[in-house]
């Protein structure tokens, strides 16, 4: 096996391509507009502890393992590309406003303690001591020192440059179908009719993965998220703030000096591109409730993109039902976080023939059990 064709030039596709090229494989990535999908909208939270949920313990282990790789991953990328990825290690603060919010935070903290995760329960005053710009109406919070963030757009630029330096070829075209010969994936057919050979095809098209002709049935769907970017936030927040505002979730993630990301809605509306007045209103209303100073910032961008959701909110990794087609999709809310471990796992599969033990629970076979 020498020729690898990767469908998708987002964070996952490029992480896979980079790691494969480092292992001596010949890699071509196909994407008509790399970096304009989910990663373009993502806030860049690296937050396995604050995202921990009952029944998702294997996903938590995968996410924590990827987070542990991030400092080395970011440093290696910076050296290979000359691009700093904006890794921010100030931790995450989760806050609540009313009794229901505090009950939800208590349940989350209990679960975190059961798993031995590092999270500290704070009063409202202690929360404001950590982030003085918080409203005095905050009732309490959880501080998670190990949940960080990164700038996804800078991360994509770094991966694109590092992959190119490692010999990855980028074809800026739309993948129109997986080419199948003798019951096996043999490459990609591109828009316009050109064909690209591949001993193995890696499917990393995010929310579009299931709709590529030639791909066997795959339980990956688009989950819309609307997100805002603001300017003028220098000094407003030290780390990420996540909040429950009367049961509704909002997050505020500082990046790039004076920028702030506010997000994000969760909508099962297919590939709807609409940024709605209601979505923007709710995000701004809740963000200002949490940090009143947000009202003074300049709103510079509103956009909607689609997370690649799966039935259990976990990625789909490894061999597919079509020989020669390898899956690297379905990362839902964790695409940025899981880029390092996904790149390593798929490269290991292609070189050694088996998925690492950490990634083994996430094959498509689990949906048939």
UniProtKB/TrEMBL annotation:
A GO cellular component annotation in the UniProt record: cytoplasm
FAD dependent oxidoreductase domain sequence ranges: 4-349
The keyword RNA-binding belongs to this UniProt entry's keyword annotation: no
InterPro entries according to UniProt: FAD-dep_OxRdtase, FAD/NAD-bd_sf, Gly_oxidase_ThiO
GO biological process: thiamine biosynthetic process; thiamine diphosphate biosynthetic process
UniProt-listed Enzyme Commission number(s): 1.4.3.19
Pfam families: DAO
Pathway: Cofactor biosynthesis; thiamine diphosphate biosynthesis
Reactions that this protein is recorded to catalyse: glycine + O2 + H2O = glyoxylate + H2O2 + NH4(+)
Renumbered residue ranges of the record's region Disordered: 124-147
PANTHER family associated with the record: GLYCINE OXIDASE, SARCOSINE DEHYDROGENASE-RELATED
Annotated protein name in UniProt: glycine oxidase
Organism: Blastococcus colisei
